[in-house]
Design goal:
It is a single chain. The chain has 1089 residues and is mostly helical. Helix content is 64%, strand content 2%. It starts with a helix and ends with a helix. Residues 56-61, 240-253, 658-665, 812-825 and 960-989 have low confidence and may be disordered.
Length: 1089
């Protein structure tokens, strides 16, 4: 209809100028709608004149069409573009502004096609002046200038102007990394440079600027690939083209990209880029090159990198079929790797072996080995660690199964991408059925590979390769597992003198690197393998160690007695300094104590000393034991020293392998245990005083309370394992702690003002009781259950108010710290902890009531009515507590619901519903989510609950069935919606042939449409966050490959559908349905507003 209307209007109007003025308005100022109308009319005029300028009639009288084109270009379109200038450079263009620019440039393109180079060059001069001078009044803003140059580029002829235009375009292409510069560079890469490349006079300048980068300049590979994929029809031989690409209807090509090594280096770099769009463009260019070569059936060879080495690309007619098979397999592997799913990729991996069969002939490479490295690099950098592991194993195995000629590229590849991949600890997992302690398969393959590869290297290259390999081990932070197996691989290299003094210094750096790893046994094993490697790979070790011994010593500020080792003196000083210094590395101190203890024990055994006194070891522990023994009797020890001594004791208890040791065999462990046990009574007296005597009275003291209670738990665990003989001491301690804590909880202040110290003591008391309950429940061998104080605890907790309100103090104590007021903002967290600890005590009581024979006192208190009240309080608790505090509440609900389901079913159903709402809204943090989910499942799917619900066909059973039916209904509804969208897609899609898409998309841009593509790129927008414009064209890709690489630069926006897991793509109908629905939803909301 638009075409008919335009043609009728042009044929009936005798005065084209009058028509032009009518379209442009009385004042000549173009609006968006007028500019789009003008573009359409001029496009029809150009079509009526035979497609545009043909170089004829330049000296004769201008026809009416040419006058109309000049008047439209210089009198209306260019002024409209100039009026959009002057905006701040950092401000992005408005959508309406962008529509005006595109419509005006579309009109100018038609004008240039009518008038030819004179008008095109005048417009280009205006655009270049704006780009060189910058945005401002009377100048075009950058995006408008680029669009204008792209519109007139096909009709530029003057050589100096062409060179100037290409130089400006390349300068913008090499812009900085900022968002604004990046968007301009992409615009130049996607619009201007391809337009210049289609001008045969400018193609050579564009090619040289892209691939022959001047010194000091940098061009991002992604931008270069964007230009090359858009120019793919121009940079390959013309005889293989499937359709005409020249503006004059004839196909011509001035270049053959296949002959340039720089082109192939760009393609190879693109194949391994992290951005999926770059990889797609690189594969597209590789496919085009292979298709062209197969169709031409002619000799082709680019320059070789080395004198006798293979070139990056070659072709010959005699081996046409073999070459096609090689490259088809190669491209198939690279495309399959995009799926990132091991079950899809694994069947294709045998084709990688066939690539080696084609690539190697006797002792030389027919194809450059860098092509194989691209495949491995993609696998090594995959998000799927299983795929990474398969790639590493395949690379290591190929050197065992095939003879591969040496290549400098392989050595660099091993030092770079391979070692980067080997730094992932998860790759070294054992296979099923392997015994604990055996070497994992990958580590064994690594040993064999490194030995084979180094053996095959020329002698003059071995030393350099080993040095770089060892330096890479020290140039980054390695985890303990990878550094262990790399060290093991070095140790199994056949003996040779490949390492000199520089290599030994590199090994020393690795030793220092491994010192920061946490696992003592792994660190020691790695050090042993590195020492073995030094002995096998060098002949100068003894002389070097003698000269460089000072580098391995830790400096000491005191003399070492003759009867002691430097290590024991160092550790003794380390412990003394630790107890005095506010900030010290506690893990280092604990680890060094145990290490020194091992050394002293080895020394003890080697000397054959039958004495069990271990005087040196006692001296090692004395600084710590002295403080611990005085804790209960000396109240004047500084808080810093008491806290640090308890922290060190706690770290030793957690680090020392007490649980798996056998004192009858391990004399050292027995000595350490006895040393710690001697301090137990003193520590218990100290803890009792601190937890019950109102000494903890500030908010900062709550962290100290956590330390004390953690020490208490570990100490009870320690005493339980070692069957401590002083059981009455523990019973007395527990009774005193329970009674004092209950006293503080029941104490009622006579003062109106709530004091901070009193409230903190209540929090400490409830926390103490919760830890006591856990100890009693988890350590039955301590026989604390029968204590009278425990019965009192049960009665008081059951009779106390549940979920009490712990009032916030009105003022601070006089002795509070300066930082205390800011801590009051977290009083809610303190109350949450208080309620959580109360539920821990209730969990202990309910578990005890459920598991043992019910005594009369508990039976009287825990009536059905009381249980229902507690369940009601539990529902309240899970709504007010944070997600990391609700676990004990769930445990209590499990016991209560199983007892109350037959009596108060509605309350139990409410518990089910509310608990599920809490679980479904939980954070996905593993430490919080999974324990709570486990407790929920145990609670809701308790066998007693399910049996009762199914037996009585109760409301709970009915509710489960209703939920199942509702789920089925939801699924059916979703499938119906997808089916509906499938019909919509068939109705609204427009038929366009693939080779017409570039022109079609450019046409739609000029008509004011925003081109939106469904594609995963580095700058993709999340579908849930993107706001669709009203005039929107949706471009969907193929099922497997997505949007073709030569069309991505036409997109205004890339939208990505958010997903979970490792699935990378959806069915194209599903993707289209989701976007159409989101577009429709947004438009409906706009209409309502």
């Amino acid at each position: 209809m638009e075409l008919v209307l335009a043609d009728t209007l042009l044929s009936q109007c005798l005065d084209a100028g009058a028509l032009l003025r009518a379209v442009c308005g009385e004042d000549g100022t173009l609006s968006v709608e007028r500019a789009e109308t003008l573009r359409f009319l001029l496009q029809r005029v150009a079509a009526a004149e035979g497609g545009g300028w043909s170089g004829q009639g330049a000296d004769g009288e201008d026809p009416a069409a040419l006058r109309l084109a000049r008047e439209a270009a210089l009198g209306h379109c260019l002024p409209a573009l100039l009026r959009t200038g002057g905006a701040p450079a950092a401000k992005p263009p408005e959508p309406e502004q962008l529509r005006l620019v595109r419509a005006s440039c579309g009109a100018l393109r038609s004008c240039a096609s009518l008038v030819g180079p004179p008008l095109a060059e005048r417009l280009a001069q205006e655009a270049l002046a704006s780009l060189e001078a910058g945005a401002g009044a009377g100048r075009l803003w950058t995006e408008a200038a680029v669009e204008l140059l792209a519109a007139v580029a096909p009709w530029l002829e003057e050589p100096a102007l062409l060179g100037r235009t290409v130089a400006v375009a390349l300068r913008l292409l090499r812009g900085d990394a900022g968002d604004e510069e990046e968007s301009r560079a992409l615009l130049v890469a996607g619009r201007l440079l391809p337009a210049l490349g289609r001008n045969h006079a400018a193609l050579g300048h564009v090619w040289e600027g892209l691939l022959l980068t001047p010194e000091g300049a940098t061009t991002r590979g992604s931008r270069t690939l964007l230009v090359l994929s858009a120019l793919s029809d121009a940079v390959f031989p013309a005889g293989a083209q499937l359709q005409d690409v020249g503006s004059d209807g004839e196909t011509a090509s001035l270049l053959d990209a296949r002959l340039h090594s720089s082109f192939w280096r760009v393609v190879q770099k693109g194949l391994t880029e992290s951005d999926a769009s770059c990889r797609k463009r690189a594969r597209y260019l590789l496919k085009r090159a292979v298709d062209v070569s197969a169709k031409l059936h002619a000799e082709c060879r680019c320059a070789a990198d080395a004198a006798n080495g293979p070139c990056l690309f070659w072709w010959c007619a005699e081996e046409n079929d073999q070459l096609i098979q090689f490259w088809e397999n190669y491209i198939l592997i690279m495309e399959t790797l995009e799926g990132n799913q091991i079950h899809v990729i694994k069947p294709v991996l045998p084709k990688l072996n066939s690539l080696y069969e084609h690539a190697v002939l006797e002792d030389r490479w027919l194809f450059h080995p860098s092509w194989h490295m691209c495949i491995y690099k993609r696998m090594f950098e995959s998000e799927n660690k299983t795929l990474t592991r398969e790639g590493v194993i395949h690379f290591l195995e190929v050197w065992q199964t095939k003879y591969l000629p040496t290549s400098p590229g392989f050595s660099e590849f091993i030092i770079g991408p391979l070692m980067d991949a080997l730094s992932e600890s998860s790759l070294y997992s054992r296979s099923s059925g392997q015994m604990m302690g055996t070497c994992p398969p990958l580590a064994i393959k690594l040993q064999m590979f490194l030995a084979t590869f180094l053996t095959n290297l020329p002698e003059e290259e071995k030393s350099s390769f080993l040095l770089k390999f060892i330096q890479k081990m020290s140039n980054r932070h390695w985890c303990a597992v990878p550094i262990l197996f790399l060290s093991m691989a070095l140790a199994y290299i056949p003996a040779c003198g490949a390492l000199d003094a520089k290599g030994l210094l590199a090994l020393r750096d690795v030793l220092q690197c491994t010192m920061i790893t946490h696992q003592i046994l792994l660190r020691g094993a790695a050090q042993c393998y590195l020492l073995k490697a030094a002995l096998r790979l060098t002949d100068v070790l003894c002389d070097w160690l003698y000269v460089n011994d000072k580098y391995f010593r830790r400096p000491l500020n005191c003399d070492v007695p003759q009867d002691k080792t430097a290590l024991s003196v160092y550790v003794q000083v380390l412990v003394q300094d630790y107890l005095k210094t506010p900030k010290a590395h506690i893990r280092l101190v604990a680890t060094m104590i145990l290490l020194a203890a091992d050394v002293e024990e080895m020394k003890h055994e080697r000397n054959g000393n039958g004495s069990t006194e271990r005087i040196e070891l006692k001296a090692l522990l004395n600084p710590l034991l002295d403080v611990l023994l005085k804790l209960g009797t000396n109240p004047y020890i500084s808080t810093l020293k008491t806290d640090k001594s308890l922290q060190l004791l706690l770290k030793l208890l957690l680090t020392c392998p007490i649980k798996c040791s056998s004192p009858q065999v391990d004399g050292l462990m027995m000595f350490l245990q006895n040393s710690f046990l001697t301090t137990t009574e003193s520590i218990l007296d100290f803890l009792l005083r601190r937890l019950t005597a109102n000494e903890l009275n500030t908010i900062a003291d709550l962290e100290r309370c956590n330390l004390y209670l953690t020490v208490l738990s570990e100490l009870m665990n320690f005493c339980s394992i070692n069957s401590w003989k002083k059981g009455p001491s523990i019973c007395n301690f527990m009774s005193s702690l329970i009674n004092a804590s209950l006293y503080h909880l029941q104490e009622i202040s006579s003062e109106k003002e709530v004091k901070l110290g009193e409230q903190i003591q209540k929090v400490v008391s409830m926390a103490s009781l919760s830890v006591v309950c856990d100890i009693i429940g988890q350590k039955p061998d301590l026989q604390l259950q029968s204590l009278p104080a425990v019965d009192t605890l049960k009665t008081v907790i059951l009779c106390a108010q549940v979920n009490p309100v712990l009032k916030k103090p009105c003022s601070l104590e006089n002795n509070s710290s300066f930082e205390e007021p800011t801590s009051h903002q977290g009083w809610g967290k303190i109350v949450a902890r208080y309620i959580h600890d109360q539920w821990v005590c209730l969990r202990f009581i309910l578990n005890d009531y459920q598991n043992v024979f019910k005594d009369k006192n508990l039976q009287q208190i825990l009536s059905d009515q009381k249980c229902a009240e507690i369940l009601q309080f539990a529902l309240e608790a899970i709504t007010i507590l944070p997600s990391d505090h609700v676990l004990p509440v769930f445990h209590c609900m499990k016991i209560l619901v199983s007892q109350l389901l037959g009596m108060t079913e509605s309350l139990c159903i409410e518990a089910f519903d509310l608990t599920w709402k809490i679980i479904s809204s939980l954070s996905n943090t593993q430490l919080i989510f999974w324990p709570n989910l486990k407790a929920f499942v145990q609670f809701v799917f308790d066998p007693e609950v399910l049996a009762a619900a199914a037996k009585n066909k109760s409301q709970a059973y009915t509710k489960i069935k209703e939920g199942e039916d509702q789920l089925k209904t939801s699924i059916c509804t979703f499938l119906a919606v997808l089916s509906h969208f499938d019909v919509i897609l068939q109705n609204v899609s427009e038929k366009v042939k693939p080779f017409q898409l570039v022109d079609y998309l450019e046409q739609k841009k000029m008509e004011g449409y925003t081109i939106v593509g469904v594609e995963q790129t580095a700058k993709s927008c999340d579908l849930t966050e993107y706001c669709f414009p009203e005039k929107c064209l949706l471009l969907l890709g193929n099922e497997h490959e997505g949007i073709p690489a030569n069309l991505i630069q036409q997109l205004d926006v890339c939208v990505e559908i958010p997903q979970q897991g490792i699935i990378r793509s959806l069915n194209v109908h599903v993707s289209g349905a989701l976007l159409i629905w989101e577009y429709t939803r947004q438009q409906i909301l706009k209409e309502k507003e």
